[in-house]
Design a protein that fits this description.
Elements: H1 9-20, E1 22-25, E2 50-52, E3 63-69, E4 72-76, H2 87-95, H3 99-106, E5 107-111, E6 138-145, H4 147-157, E7 165-168, E8 174-175, E9 198-200, H5 201-230, E10 233-238, H6 244-248, E11 252-257, H7 258-261, H8 266-274, E12 280-289, E13 292-295, H9 306-318, H10 337-342, H11 349-366, E14 376-378, E15 380-385, H12 389-395, H13 409-413
Parallel strand pairs: 7-9
Antiparallel strand pairs: 1-2, 3-4, 3-6, 4-5, 6-14, 6-15, 7-8, 10-15, 11-12, 12-13
Helix pairs in contact: 1-3, 1-5, 4-11, 9-11
Length: 419
């Protein structure tokens, strides 16, 4: 065996760009207004106009990538976390492959040493304990923050183009706060099951997790491709736990009674407490460092109510002169961005009201949003490392021992670096 050889900063920078680097403005070629054709709009579901190397549902960019090595832990900024006037220069740097410059501008240190979850089951599977997040490696941990995407999808579902009716299958399929908006009560949402416009809360949660998984999968694939191009070893693997990684990274946490997270009624709550099984469920609610909020979900404690959170999200998209759909269109690929934005309709008052009602129901009943796990979620991680070529030569067949050729090795080797 050999002493581990940490990745060079230039190698990390190339991997970070491959994972989630800015690539420029999206095309956003969507129909924004229904016009004379019913159910033909809805393009205002898009959340951002700056893209990155990994695709994202609604351009939400729900995944934040954390980089962990022997020297510490860093957060890589998402596109929406850069001032818009800085984006053109960052995109130009990407086109010129100035990855080190981009890396330094994109990362925010959150720890000065390698952090990890307890190295035992259920936090680390037994088959990964020997290799995952060990000394000398660089560990890429994607973390999803889903509150904004969740609200965004609800606003689309409750738009007049869709008019979905949401029920809670964990509460006897009762309306999820939106009963007064049902067509059977004079509203506009299709609550007749035969009209195929009904969805459950669990379906919504599943959509969120699948959207995040697809975005994360793109990030992991990009990391694997860049690792191969650099002649590095690497592997994606399970890093899923409801709260362990958030505790390890010192997220802001809150403890919810287990009975609250399942929406238990009075009888079940009493039974759980009598059996001493109403255990606290740690839930991540945000990330802060040195008085600065680095990741701020659209939910309490950063907003006093879910109504305030939903209205803040609407303002994020529609605040005049600042919102992503009302900033004049300069931060876009359109020739006349102001004209295009002027034709993007705002959400209707009833769609906003239905979204508020649904979100308040979920948060009141389950104590978090999305209800299943709260705003944050981990699933997979990717580790990159220098290979021990002697190991493969000793234990593997010659035809299997075709180690990745460093296609970018000469380029990376020529880049000066400082840590």
């Amino acid at each position: 065996t050999h002493e581990p050889e940490p990745l060079r900063l230039a190698e990390e920078a190339a991997l970070a760009f491959a994972a989630c680097g800015l690539t420029g403005y999206t095309m956003a070629e969507l129909p924004y207004d229904t016009g004379n054709v019913a159910e033909a709009g809805g393009g205002n579901i898009i959340m951002n106009f700056v893209g990155r190397t990994a695709f994202s549902a609604d351009a939400a960019h729900v995944i934040t990538v954390f980089v962990i090595n022997d020297d510490g832990v860093w957060l890589l900024k998402r596109p929406q976390e850069y001032p818009r006037m800085e984006v053109p220069a960052l995109v130009e740097a990407a086109r010129e492959q100035r990855w080190l410059d981009l890396y330094e501008k994109s990362r925010v240190r959150i720890a000065d040493q390698r952090l990890d979850v307890p190295r035992k089951v259920p936090f680390v599977p037994p088959f990964n304990k020997w290799s995952a997040n060990v000394r000398g490696t660089t560990y890429f941990l994607p973390i999803a923050e889903l509150s904004g995407l969740f609200i965004n999808v609800l606003l689309a579902a409750f738009s007049e183009d869709a008019s979905y009716f949401i029920v809670d299958e964990r509460n006897n399929f009762r309306p999820a706060g939106v009963a007064k908006f049902a067509r059977s009560r004079g509203g506009y949402l299709y609550d007749n099951l035969l009209e195929d416009h009904t969805a459950t809360l669990s379906l919504l949660d599943t959509w969120m997790y699948e959207f995040a998984a697809v975005e994360q999968g793109s990030i992991l694939q990009n990391l694997a491709l860049m690792s191969t191009a650099l002649g590095l070893g690497g592997f994606p693997h399970l890093a899923s736990h409801p709260f362990a990684w958030f505790q390890a990274l010192d997220f802001r946490m809150t403890d919810l009674p287990f009975s609250r997270t399942i929406g238990a009624g009075p009888l079940m709550k009493s039974l759980l407490r009598a059996l001493k099984k109403d255990i606290p469920m740690p839930t991540a609610v945000g990330l802060e460092r040195d008085g600065q909020v680095l990741i701020k979900p659209f939910c309490p404690p950063y907003y006093s109510t879910m109504e305030e959170a939903v209205l803040a999200f609407v303002e994020y998209k529609y605040a005049e002169g600042q919102g992503t759909l009302r900033d004049g269109g300069a931060a876009s690929n359109w020739q006349d961005g102001a004209m295009v934005q002027a034709g993007i309709p705002r959400y209707s008052d009833q769609a906003i009201a239905a979204t508020i009602a649904c979100c308040e129901y979920i948060y009141s009943r389950y104590g978090r949003i999305p209800a299943t796990n709260g705003p944050f979620r981990t699933l997979m991680a990717y580790q990159a490392h220098h290979l021990d070529a002697d190991f493969y030569r000793k234990f593997y067949r010659p035809e299997a021992e075709r180690l990745p050729a460093p296609a970018l090795g000469n380029v990376i080797g020529a880049i000066p670096e400082t840590r």
